[in-house]
Amino acid sequence: MKKLLALAMIMGFGALAPPATAAGPAPTFVEDDGSWLQMVGEGSLKIIDPKLEKTRIWLEGQSRYDGDFSHWYQGMVRAAVGYSLTERLTVWAGYTWLPTQNIGKSFVSQQDVWPGLRYVLPTSFGTLSLRTLVESNFLQDSNVRVRPRQMVRFMHPLQAEPRLSLIAWDEFFIRLNDTPYGGQAGFDQNRAFAGLGWSFNKNVRTELGYMNQYVENLTHTSDTMRHLIMGSVFINF
């Protein structure tokens, strides 16, 4: 198990580094500070009908700020329906709406549809979670970008105070195809988070920490690195 965790962390946090390129000038990048706020609700539909115990619903909303915390630039609304194949494995089908207003650029409304898979592995020293989404990003006109994304997440409750947990996760994104508005195929971005979580009870949990977002631009010539404070509220039902 220790070898599995080590391999997962190497694969995930290793994605922070930009991919190797052919000989030539290194890509330039800009840095920015901001914050992401999110609320996530997830639960079984057995509250509607006991026969739907294995059917799940996932609702999520985010608000994102950059420009040294001064500018709202992006929102996110996500909804999905899932089915628990086992206690550890759940499959999902979902939809995401991503409105974006970057400074000096036109408003963009991206819509995504995706299948997903989540595997949760409890261990004696914490919980390891793996989440895979394969997004079809509808950007502009009829262009569709296919973008898989993989998250590796670990939560370790503290022995002295089990309600308090150490949280670390990494998620990387890959573009599978070229599109005029979605960029060239290849590495897209990486997100890495480290922080603390607090469980008020079995149904409500909060997390607060630092997230580093490394984004390669659409033509692979310049990059953006955001230093973000991320706050989350999770509600289980």
Automatic annotation (TrEMBL):
Keyword terms:
Signal
Does the keyword Signal feature in the UniProt annotation? yes
The protein here is known as DUF2490 domain-containing protein
The positions making up the signal sequence are: 1-22
Q: Kindly give the InterPro entries that the UniProt entry links to this protein.
A: DUF2490
Q: Which organism is it from?
A: Methylovulum psychrotolerans
